[in-house]
Design a protein that fits this description.
The protein is of the alpha+beta class and about 425 residues long. It has 3 domains: about 10-105 and about 225-380, 3-hydroxy-3-methylglutaryl-coenzyme A Reductase, Chain A, domain 2 (Alpha-Beta Complex), CATH 3.90.770.10; about 110-215, 2-Layer Sandwich (Alpha-Beta Plaits), CATH 3.30.70.420; about 380-429, no CATH class. Helices cover about 50% and strands about 20% of the residues. It is built from 17 helices and 10 strands. The chain has helices at about 15-25, 30-35, 45-50, 85-100, 125-130, 135-145, 145-150, 190-205, 245-260, 260-280, 285-295, 330-335, 340-345, 350-375, 380-395, 400-410, 415-429, and strands spanning about 60-70, 70-80, 105, 110-120, 155-165, 175-180, 210-215, 225-230, 305-310, 315-325. Strand 1 (about 60-70) and strand 2 (about 70-80) form a beta hairpin. The longest helix is centred in the C-terminal third of the chain and has 24 residues, at about 350-375. It is globular, with a radius of gyration of 25 Å. The structure holds NADPH dihydro-nicotinamide-adenine-dinucleotide phosphate (NDP). NADPH dihydro-nicotinamide-adenine-dinucleotide phosphate binds near residues 151, 186, 187, 193 and 333. It catalyses: (R)-mevalonate + 2 NAD(+) + CoA = (3S)-3-hydroxy-3-methylglutaryl-CoA + 2 NADH + 2 H(+). InterPro entries: HMG_CoA_Rdtase, HMG_CoA_Rdtase_bac-typ, HMG_CoA_Rdtase_cat_sf, HMG_CoA_Rdtase_CS, HMG_CoA_Rdtase_NAD(P)-bd_sf, HMG_CoA_Rdtase_sub-bd_dom_sf.
Length: about 425
């Protein structure tokens, strides 16, 4: 793949942008013509995906540029309705690539399944019984999904927790069996649920209790992905702000989020601004990723910043983001949605681990984009310029008029629908 640093991309017409992406991917004739689906999602496919279908709901799909992650170039597909997110991610990715790019990693990817058992006559005895039969239970789980074993995946471990042992209510006392499975390149929800359901009857026998829930946990703490970047202050200089001032502003902003949940929620929403669009574009379950990410941000007992920003001995700005990433490159909607298939091709991703690493890198870029703006000119300057276009479109502007009206509103500092409607009328008279 050629470089993902394509200057002036945003100024080109859409068709030319598509050509540039195809050039970047170095596709040949046949692959080129089939790359962008002519129909984003046919009604017939949609009708098989969910219930009561009456239509489809398109979102803009943009490309995050300039991403260099572990020395590999990425054009990142991002499906999102919010203006300025893709521009900001691409801007920061350019700075980070000049600093050597993002370094990302992920360890073993294990998804977690939970089996809830209540009413055990003796919870400690029940726990011991389950642990004694660990190998047999793992085998039952694996037998329920033989194709996963053939791919080299399967249940790797199992453990047991007792909850509310000393409480009076029989409703709250319970034993929870956790199964940890390598689901290869699948997110694994259905796989895990199948395995948990298969093991449940044996668990009931062993514990002498009653099994209720058998379900995946979206708190995917054994499927973490990390991204880091190290940026010299010279690359952070912005307008009248020198690089050290920007760096210090970013660290102050981080410390605010680290200590205050009111700020942390918005700080983390900014991170998810980068993460969700990639998760959505690749057909993954963004509710699962959102739920896991926010829970991980509260793992200390207090909801806090998902990212960490600091200064190293050389004075560089150091950013880190580690999050649970329950995503896949196969299965679920990725398998059937033509846009998701295209997004995965655009990323040229080889595995779910690689996708997870790209996603956290984009989240980290997005976070720095917001913090850098907040620590310098404020978020509105860049945001309102892009927002003005949406307001112009909503007021009925089309074609070249969108830009003209957006610029006019910015100039007069009146970015509101009333003004946009006035201008549309004025220009279309
Ligand atoms: P699937 O049920 O689609 O399973 C993935 C399938 O991909 C497997 O059956 C396997 O088919 C196939 N496959 C092909 N290549 C590979 C590979 N390299 N590695 C692994 N599998 C491969 O999807 P998931 O189990 O991943 O479940 C994800 C879906 O579940 C999402 O749509 C999600 O929204 C939904 N869900 C989420 C829940 C939650 O988050 N709590 C709960 C329930 C559902 P085969 O082995 O047959 O060849």
């Amino acid at each position: 793949m050629k470089t993902s640093r394509i200057s002036g991309f945003y100024r080109k017409p859409v068709e030319e942008r598509k050509e540039l992406i195809l050039d970047m991917m170095e596709l040949n004739g046949g692959e080129r013509s089939a790359f962008f689906p002519t129909e984003p999602l046919e009604l017939e496919i949609a009708d098989h995906m969910v219930e009561n279908v009456v239509g489809t709901f398109p979102l803009p799909l943009g490309v995050g540029l300039n991403f260099l992650i572990n020395d590999k170039e990425y054009a990142v597909p991002m499906a999102i309705e919010e203006a300025s997110v893709i521009a900001s991610a691409s801007h920061i990715a350019k700075i980070v690539r000049d600093a050597g790019g993002f370094k990302a990693s992920s360890g073993e990817r294990l998804m977690i399944g939970q089996i809830q058992v209540v009413g055990c006559p003796d919870f400690e005895e029940a726990k011991a019984a389950v642990l004694n039969e660990k190998s047999e239970l793992i085998e039952i789980c694996n037998d329920a999904y033989p194709s996963l074993i053939q791919r080299g995946g399967g249940v790797r471990d199992l453990d047991v927790r007792i909850l509310n042992e000393h409480e009076d209510s029989d409703y709250s006392k319970m034993l929870i069996v956790h199964i940890y499975a390598d689901t290869c390149d699948a997110m694994g929800a259905n796989m895990i649920n199948t395995m948990a359901e298969a093991a449940a009857p044996r668990v009931e026998l062993l514990t002498k209790g009653k099994v209720y829930l058998r379900i995946l946990s979206n708190y995917a703490v054994k499927s973490l992905a990390r991204a880091t970047c190290i940026i010299p202050p010279s690359l952070l200089k912005t307008g009248d702000f020198d690089g050290e001032a920007v760096r210090d502003g970013v660290i102050h902003a981080y410390e605010f989020a680290a200590s205050d949940p009111f700020r942390a929620v918005t700080h983390n929403k900014g991170i998810m601004n980068g993460i969700d669009p990639v998760v959505i574009a690749t057909g993954n379950d963004w509710r699962a990723v959102e739920a896991g990410a926010h829970a991980y941000a509260a793992r200390s007992g207090q909801y806090s910043s998902m990212s960490v920003w600091s200064k190293d001995e050389a004075g560089n700005l150091v950013g880190e983001l580690e999050l649970p990433m329950s995503i896949g490159t196969v299965g679920g909607a990725t398998r059937v949605h033509p846009m998701a298939q295209m997004a995965l091709k655009m990323l040229d991703i080889k595995s779910a681990s690689e996708l997870a690493q790209v996603i956290v890198s984009v989240g980290l870029a997005q976070n720095l984009g917001a913090l850098k703006a907040l620590a310098t000119d404020g978020i509105q300057k860049g945001h309102m310029a892009l927002h003005a276009r949406s307001v112009a479109v909503a007021a009925g502007a089309t074609g070249e008029l969108i830009e003209i009206i957006a610029e006019k509103m910015i100039e007069t500092k009146e970015i509101r629908s009333g003004k946009a409607k006035e201008l549309v009328e004025e220009y279309t008279l």
